[in-house]
Each structure stands twice: as structure tokens, then as C-alpha cells.
Amino acid sequence: MNDLTRDGPALARFRAAVFADAGLQDALNGIDDVDRFVAAALPLASARGFSVAADELRAALAGRPLPISGFSDAPLTSVRPLQQWLPIQVVGGAGGPCVEWAYFGPDGPAEPFFQDTVTKVLRRPINRLAMHRTALSMLTDVAQPGPSLPLSGLIFHMSRCGSTLVSRMLAQDRRNIVISEAPPVDAIVRSDTDPARSEGLVAMLAALVRALGRKRAPWQERFFVKLDSWHILHLPLFRRAFPDVPWIFLFREPVEVLASQVIQRGIQTVPEYLPGSYFGLSEDEAESSDDYCALVLRQICRAALAHRPLGGGRLINYRDLPQAVWSEILPHFGVACGEEDRSRLAQAAQFDAKSPGLTYAGDNASKLAAMTEELKTTANRRLGNVYAQLEALRSQGK
Known about the structure:
single chain; alpha/beta; Rossmann fold; 2 domains; 5-stranded parallel β-sheet
């Protein structure tokens, strides 16, 4: 991997200039080919007095990492990222935790998940050239400059119950910024373990979300955040950070969720990735891997029930999608939805939420085959009661 400390003086100054100059960023944004990027960047560098060699710039771009990690050689600075930059990860560093930033330009994340968009934007030469880090402790200061959209709604979910469909439908309206399961949000939320740090975490979460909601184009008006399924355990933290923001919790018939998890496990159902203790489960509580998965889902649903008295929430059953997006969810989020909006939303619902190029086909044969009698028994034994409670409250509009 390229070491930024080995940059020549001119290249080092040009990196810093690109990071700090909105005009340079606009001129270089959207150039994905390295050769074209070099051809465009060299005269811009020369015009600013930086004598950068083509081979040196090309070598610097070729050495940059593609995944959302590997910024360890990027400078840790107090310089505030300009409006078109978003935080993409919170990582450890020699000087303490830090925030990694990437240049997004004016468009909102287009892929189903925030991490997919991050992977895409990090392939752009501009981000290979000008990646940046700031101290996590500075987040509340860094997030302030420039306008941010007020948070319009939070999307919590049981998992595999239509939350991606909802977020994708919302994202079809270019006026909406939709951030889906962003790793930096998860990093802040998962540190919510020490009551003594709660005040600082509230401020940090609010600042991070505010940074993700930066208004980067004149047409952007609303901002929604879809969380990871386990984040419902931390709803009190979110209510303190965003006390007036409405939220929803999506849930689904337990055996349907379990069948999806049997085919492809989410990390929350694998103890090696997220330990059972995180959900208040003991090591010997589960009888099988499927049973453990059911127990995790039960804890998630129980948290939704336990935290409902905090206010601002609405329960949504998967079977009511996609109509519930325009009949319940948008009204709950305070967003008007006319006939043209409903038509656009209905059209978006025809495509697979996680593979937008494919038509949605409902539960496929593999999922139906996974719904064995044993799995149905597990689902009913572990999740039947909590599902019934959620459905009873939903039907009462509570």
C-alpha cells in the first residue's frame, strides 16, 4: 500500500489542496478512469504551482486501498471536510479512535446499503488521492459547518422484513437522502455500554448523523436513516439524540424471517461476529444454531416492545408492504404523498430491493423449502408470543 509519508513535497501539497478546495473537487469528481484523472489533474496542479510528475501521481493512485479500511497512512487533521464529504467509518488509530471521510459529490448514496456506495466511491481516483481522517473526539466540531438536513425518520427492523424495500422506495425520490446501515453509526451505537459515557455518546451520535445528512445538492429536502436490526436495543440512545424524530419498527411472521436466516445468516445471528451476551443471552441457552437465531430475533422484538413507551414509534408488518409506505410510513414521518408520488413508489416496489436491476419475485423456492416443520416449531416456541404482542399493538394503532 502506498505510504503517504513518501509523497514528494509537490504531491503532498496537491493532496492537501484537493481536500480543501471545492473547485478542485468539482473539477475532478466523476472521473473514474485513472489515466483521464491524471490528464485532468496535472494542469490543475500546475496552475496552482505544484510541479507533480505524471508517474508519481499515477503510482499514488494505484496504491490506494479499495475497501473501507486502510486509511492508516492518511493524515490525521483538524481541517474540516467540505460539504461534499461524508464520514464512512470509525476506526482505531495510534492517537485514538478516528473518523474516515470520503468525497461523495452532490448525489446521495444510490446502492441498497451505505457500505456498497462507500466501496464504489472509494474506487474513484479523487478518493484515492485525497482520503482524510479526523479525530473522533472532534466529530461534534467537524460535523457543524455547512447545512445539514433535519432527520425526517428512523427505520428500525426485525431483519429480513422489508426494511431495505422501504429504504429503496424512499430513495427513489431524489429529494430524499437515505442512509442505510452505515458502519460509522454502528460503531457509535455499539459503544453504548457504559452509562457514564452516555452524554458524550448522545452528542456524538447526533453529530455523526448530522454529518451523514449534509445537504449536498439544492434538490435535497429530507433525510432518513435505516439502522441495523440490533440497533433497536439502543432506542433510548436514539430518542435522547433525536427526541422529536418519528421512527418505525418493521416485523414479519417469524418462520419467514428464520427461513431467510437459514439460507444466509445475518451477522447478528452468528455469535462469533456479535456475541450472545450483546443480546442478553447465555452460552447454553440455545439448543441449535436455528434456535439461537430465533432467540436473537426474540430479543430484538422484545426491545421494540419494551421501548415503545418512549414515544414516536409505529409498528409495521411486512405483509402490509409496499402499500404501507405511502399509507402509513410517510404520513407517520410527516411527509405528504400525492398520487404521482404513490405511482412512483409502487413502480419502485416492483424491483428487488437488494438487487435493483431484478424484478421482485417474492419468497423463492429455497426459502419455502427452508420452512420445515421443525423450523416452524422453533419459530412458534421462541417468537410466537412476542410476534402476537407486536401484531396486537399494530392492529390497535399503538
